Amino acid sequence: MEQVAPGVWRLRLGTPEAFTPIALREAEPLVDAMRALPTAAAPFAAQAVRFSVSARGCVVELPIGDGEEIYGFGLQLKSHKQTGLKKTIRVNADPIADTGDSHAPVPFYVSTRGYGVFVDTARYASFYCGSHVRREGASTPGAPARSAEELPAPAGRAAKAMVVDVPAAEGVDVYVLAGPSMRQAIQRYNLFSGGGCLPPMWGLGVWYRQNHAYTADDALRLAATFREREMPMDVYGLEPGWQTHAYGSSYDWATERYPDPDEFLARMGDMGFKINLWTQAVVDPSSPLYDVLRHYASDYEVWGGIVTDMNVPEARAAYADHHERAFIQRGVSGFKVDECDNSDFNPSPWSFPEHSRFPSGMDGEQMHSSIGLLYQKALLSAFRRNNTRTYCSVRSSHGLAAPYPFVLYSDLYDHRDFVRGVVNAGFSGLLWSPEVRPCASVEDLIRRLQVVVLSAQALINAWNLAMPPWWQPDSERNRAGELLDNVAKVEAICRGLLQFRMALLPYLYSAFATYRLEGTPPIRAVVVDYPQDPNAYELDSQYLIGDALLAAPIFAGEKSRVVYLPPGNWYSFWTHERHEGGQSYEVESPAEQIPLFVRENTILPLAEPVGHIDRDTCFEITAYTFGPRCEPCMLFEDDGVSFDYERGAYNWVELTWSPDDGPAVNRRGDYPDVRYRIMDWSHIPE
Ligand code: GAL
């Protein structure tokens, strides 16, 4: 095993393929931050790993110890703990069963024993997570026995193992990442990927996506209504109809709907909205990009358009240049990169086949695993050239994706699966949006919105609605223009939830800065921080946000739920009641409140909610202390929009408090402006 970064060892097995996540990586490992983690030995020796190659591909067998639990494999919506299961990590737009299909499958798993393993492949590999036991000695082929004496000794049982079946490849690189803790193993994976992403501050505000057929006038009207009605909102998304041709994309404004795009962008910008444009991966022949990109197309068409080989640097550059000139430099803030996944369960399969051939030498299977990453890479390069941060949506991703400021979403809609996505995404360097669309009832709308405001991207996706879901959650009635009877009340509840998001923004932004610099996922499963606690192993509907908060969503139809609070003491966010951890509680929750708990000895900064975030927004903060020996609270302060923080233009604002010394605020760093003003302190009694 060769050590390739602090706490990361590479095991080269056979002859690896050319097109792998490592070969496509976005950024170099953040070696200094990895070195700052506690040192740890490799979790197992190279001798403990078995490897074989056959005509079907190669097989790697890695040890799993007793009592060890396995998590990961990307955006798994159907299961949480993977021990004992088989996952085939296939890119898919409709991950309807617990087979491993995912918008963003990732060949990375992490163990409660405090290490991670990254198998560097773009193949639809199968991971047998201790689900099958090999018969020791049974796998050795030899000459057939001619008599009973020649029969081999009966096979013994091999120890439990992780068996990885990688089709087509004659070899593979396996990266073993030390912790020493489970959380540090995930940090190490994210740092090895290049560090987590830091969204622009506005990206953590509220997002709304309008009806796909709206015109510029419709958009301006609705946007003005949001401002009049004081619904906090930062990003306004245009769906397919902004383009002359959507499936495949023309990447060109439909002037019958948007006669003057620059004027439209300016007027939306004046109201404080950032514009995000829906696109997808297929290039239509009518696109201004078609003549260039057709030279890099695969051998299959999709929707009458081409699928570009974005692994060819010239193709990626042409795509990025067009987006830079036509959109980014004219003020567009980001994109929603749709349908870059795959279609297997669709009645009319729309994606390119696995046996497709691409000019760079990739086949369709490798491209399905890579195409989401390659589009993210192209777009991010265009934003970087303009020293402008972006926050985007994407429907497919894969390994080493932490540095990409792109959030995954799905057309699936089961609320429990969506919450499981929030819980699981952080195992593998991914971000996930449990977006609200039409809802079964007002209660369903509120319960869904509660999760949305406590997620990586607070998105309301009204692409097939005529008006916001808080005016009418039922899709048919909404499209028929029927307002709810109690529309003012429902809107007020939803406004309260969106304002709550804005109150949390400085806290969330700082959690993302820690993701960027130290690799800690801002939103993560409870087991990540409590791998020694078996009570945490099955918790697929509650999650940690930063270091201070634990959320436990309630689903429509429920009045209460069981919440497990890990060891230590916790306060209810709403009632301030103190609960001893290491136990489960049946928690009741009024319709307007999501069960939310604050860890003891936390200073929680809550901001006066603003309607949207500008470059010079300064948050007025009340610091709430929970408990007698509060840890310092660190707020990350920078311009919120550029990459200047990478050159040191940021501060850490440290809030401290103790009963003896009282409150203190210390600002350290080289950023000259002030984004946070601490207005008040409030001490929650024990
Ligand atoms: C889907 C996407 C939806 C919406 C729709 C518009 O593929 O998942 O969110 O954008 O296209 O046609």
Helix- and strand-based class? alpha+beta
Q: How large is the share of residues in beta strands?
A: 25-35%
Segments where pLDDT lies below 50 for 5+ residues? Answer: none
Return Rg in Å.
25 Å
Largest sheet: 7 strands, parallel
Describe the protein's architecture and organization.
- The structure is a single chain.
- This protein is α+β, with helices and mostly antiparallel strands and 686 residues long.
- 21% of the residues lie in helices and 27% in strands.
- It has twelve helices and 37 strands.
- The strands form nine sheets. A seven-stranded parallel β-sheet has the order 22-21-20-16-15-14-23.
- Strand 18 and strand 19 form a beta hairpin.
- Helix 2 packs across helix 11, helix 6 packs across helix 7 and helix 9 packs parallel to helix 11.
- The longest helix is centred in the last third of the chain and has 32 residues.
- The chain is globular and about 90 Å long.
- The protein starts with a strand and ends with a strand.
- Bound molecules: beta-D-galactopyranose.
- Beta-D-galactopyranose binds next to loops.
